[in-house]
Amino acid sequence: MSDGVTREAWEITGTGEWLDRRRQDVTASRLAALFDLHPYVSRPQLADIMRATTTTGTGSVPDSPAMRRGRILEPAVAAALTEERPELKLTRSR
Hints:
3 helices
């Protein structure tokens, strides 16, 4: 692309690695925590996550019930989208 933005790409080998790479960033899903508006993460918790003081032995944040449901339902959502929109080509990210 010629928009002047530098992009990096990595092969992610697992959920723990993916979460570790995201830890240093304030992602869209955590932005509300900066303004004390996140329903599940407080500003101090976000700071702990970003400093890597709230981790498990794998270096990732433990699953919440919502994260567990998301992992379990992800293949079903992809299958439903493929059925509804066959013109889209879905590729599972690694």
